[in-house]
Amino acid sequence: MFCKSLEQFLNEYLENDVPYMDLYFENKEHYKDLYDYAKQHLYDTRFQVIMGYLYKYGEAGEKNHQLAFEHFYKAAINDNKYAANEIALAYEYGNGVDKNIEESVKWFEKGVALNNPSSMNDLGYLYERGIGVKQNLEIAVEYYQMAADLGNPTAINNLALCYKAGKVVKQDYHKAFELFTKAAELGCNASYSHLGYMYEQGQGIEVNLEKAFHYYEIAAKKGVPVGMFNLGYTYDHGIGTAKDPEKALYWYEESAKKGYQQGMLNAGIMYNHGIGVAQDFGKARYWYEKAAECGNARAQCSLGFMYEKGNGVPQNYKTALEYYEKSANSGYATAINNLGVFYEHGFGCEANINKAIEYYKIAAEKGEGIALSNLGLCYRYGRGVCKNVSYALELFKKAIDAGFEKAKDYYEKAKNEL
User: Fold this and answer.
1) Is residue 260 within 8 Å of 225, Cβ to Cβ?
2) 66-70: long-range contacts (C-beta < 8 A, 24 or more apart)?
3) CA separation (Å) from 281 to 170, 262, 303, 326, 336?
4) Among 91, 232, 305, 378, whose Cα sits 20 to 30 Å from the Cα of 409?
5) Dist. CA 280–CA 272, nearest whole Å
6) Which residues neighbour 211 within 8 Å (Cβ) at sequence distance 6 or greater?
7) Average pLDDT in the 177-202 region?
8) What digits encode the pLDDT tens for the residues 282-322?
9) Average pLDDT over residues 321-349
């Protein structure tokens, strides 16, 4: 709710009990007036809360998490439900106080006791993830339901996710769709992206790609990272809209700037291959590195390939090997195959055909076409294994079925050896 004056703000906050976080000034200068007024009324815990928020967000000056914590704490020990939740969040993230998840849980529990729906939702999240408490999905859903019953939009969204995935409750796409719709109407921006996905996949509603695009666009413009990524994906693949690689790259990068890992990867891919933009190995490497730091296995493998081929970086087999190993440790089949190639040929390491075959077999079991082909070549020529052309043909056939076209040539030539 936008307030035109300090008087209107105070009336909504004090008389109608509208939470501070739901109130905004049209004129930002009014926050300084609010600061001066609150400073004169700190005997009232509600104004301690106001001071806490002003310091937390720096709305009347510079941010100061320590001072925010001090004001919230004074209000929280006097049973202010909003302050109790803020103290819990401060302990959870280490804002203005040392991070302490046990203390965070304790203050969320106090917020629940004071009937704060935000605390119910946040405590539910901790139980869902097993953060600071033993993981318990049943308790998580109970807290989400409690908060949802009190109209908390984030809790309604979380409850919808439970119905969508069938967590504790019976999977029900129709129920999930209804809850996402309600959460979006109440202001949960993430729900717009979920609605877009349900329209795209036809979950709980008939497939409608134009509506999927519409909801992704709403989510993206409201700053939801996954919504930004999904909007980029629709432009990339022409889902519910015309293909537009330039817009796809724009939204991938916007999601990447918000820390969305898949957005980092896709931005890297587009720069690497010059899709929607001039090829730029430097920017490709930048986004691959960002995604790799987040543990993205494909990005790690892509960096390995850049160092293997010397694309935008000096060729360095040892660095390439390191990236392939990181990616392979996450089970990424392409990287596992590439390790096989490196050990077969001694790139960045001592050649070891037995190790190479071991990696080829692991990647082949994952259905990696090129690994099936490489393993087939080992059997065709008897490299590290007993020569077996018949088995090589089987492997080439599987590689072809997996989409590795080059295996067709290997298959035809090996067939002539029987």
Assistant:
1) yes
2) 66/96, 66/97, 67/96, 68/95, 68/96, 69/95, 69/96, 69/97, 70/96
3) 47, 18, 10, 21, 24
4) 305
5) 6
6) 196, 199, 240
7) 98
8) 999 999 999 999 999 999 999 999 999 999 999 999 999 99
9) 98
CA angle 276, 278, 281 (to 5 degrees): 110
Tell me the C-alpha distance between 333 and 288, whole Å.
Answer: 18
pLDDT at residue 244, as a whole number: 98
Write out the chain in H/E/C secondary structure: CEECCHHHHHHHHHHCCCCHHHCEECCCCHHHHHHHHHHCCCCCHHHHHHHHHHHHHCCCCCCCHHHHHHHHHHHHCCCCHHHHHHHHHHHHHCCCCCCCHHHHHHHHHHHHHCCCHHHHHHHHHHHHHCCCCCCCHHHHHHHHHHHHHCCCHHHHHHHHHHHHHCCCCCCCHHHHHHHHHHHHHCCCCHHHHHHHHHHHHCCCCCCCHHHHHHHHHHHHHCCCHHHHHHHHHHHHHCCCCCCCHHHHHHHHHHHHHCCCHHHHHHHHHHHHHCCCCCCCHHHHHHHHHHHHHCCCHHHHHHHHHHHHHCCCCCCCHHHHHHHHHHHHHCCCHHHHHHHHHHHHHCCCCCCCHHHHHHHHHHHHHCCCHHHHHHHHHHHHHCCCCCCCHHHHHHHHHHHHHCCCCCHHHHHHHHHCCC
Is residue 217 within 8 A of residue 199, CB to CB? The reply is: no
11-16 long-range contacts, CB within 8 A, separation 24+: 13/46, 13/50, 14/46
pTM of structure: 0.89
Q: Among candidates 354, 350, 357, 306, which has minimal Cα distance to 327? A: 306
Report pLDDT digits (tens) over 80-123: 999 999 999 999 999 999 999 999 999 999 999 999 999 999 99
Q: 56-86 burial, b for 16+ CB within 10 Å, e for fewer? A: beebbeeeebebbbbbbbbbbeeebbbbbbb
Which structure tokens are listed for 132? 């600071």
Instruction: pLDDT band for 24, please (50, 70, 90 cuts).
Output: confident
Distance CA 133, CA 314 (A): 48
CB atoms inside a 10 Å sphere around CB 390: 10
Mean pLDDT of the chain: 96
pLDDT (0 to 100) of residue 23? 77
In which residue are the tokens 């877009």 written?
196
